[in-house]
């Protein structure tokens, strides 16, 4: 057994697609109409068979309070691993990405947290 897809709730799928592909560098894996929304997944360009991230609409009534609590407490919705956090921080900052926590050492890891512009905080980790 292995993880196939995981998700983040997003306010706007088109805006999320732009952010996750043009800023973070993921590639589209699936983009299928599904009623009012889309089954829209992205993944790492260098891992064509890797885990997919579903950019899931945040329409369910439970999502708003859940995300507000996470963001209010500074808790990331998910975490992405990078090989050089300082370089990635510089690259993303130059693209206008906003960070709520700049890179900091946390023992054997280094972490930073960004705002995905779609209602989530995302943690970047180097280890």
Automatic annotation (TrEMBL):
**GO MF:** lyase activity
| Protein keywords | Lyase
For this protein, the record's PROSITE patterns field holds: VOC
Pfam family, any one: Glyoxalase
Segments spanning the bilayer are: none
Entry superkingdom: Bacteria
Entry keyword annotation includes Lyase: yes
Domain named VOC is located at: 1-127
Q: Which CDD domains match?
A: VOC_like (cd07263)
Write down what this protein is called.
Answer: Lactoylglutathione lyase
- Protein source organism: Rubidibacter lacunae KORDI 51-2
């Amino acid at each position: 057994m292995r993880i196939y897809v995981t998700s983040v709730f997003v306010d706007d799928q088109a805006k999320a697609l732009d952010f996750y592909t043009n800023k973070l560098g993921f590639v589209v894996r699936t983009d299928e109409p599904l009623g009012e929304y889309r089954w829209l997944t992205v993944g790492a360009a260098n891992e064509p068979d890797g885990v997919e991230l579903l950019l899931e609409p945040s329409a369910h009534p439970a999502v708003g309070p859940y995300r507000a609590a996470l963001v209010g407490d500074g808790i990331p919705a998910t975490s992405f691993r990078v090989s050089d956090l300082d370089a990635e921080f510089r690259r993303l900052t130059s693209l206008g990405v906003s960070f709520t926590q700049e890179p900091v050492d946390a023992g054997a890891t280094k972490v930073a947290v960004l705002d995905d512009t779609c209602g989530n905080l995302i943690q970047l980790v180097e280890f």
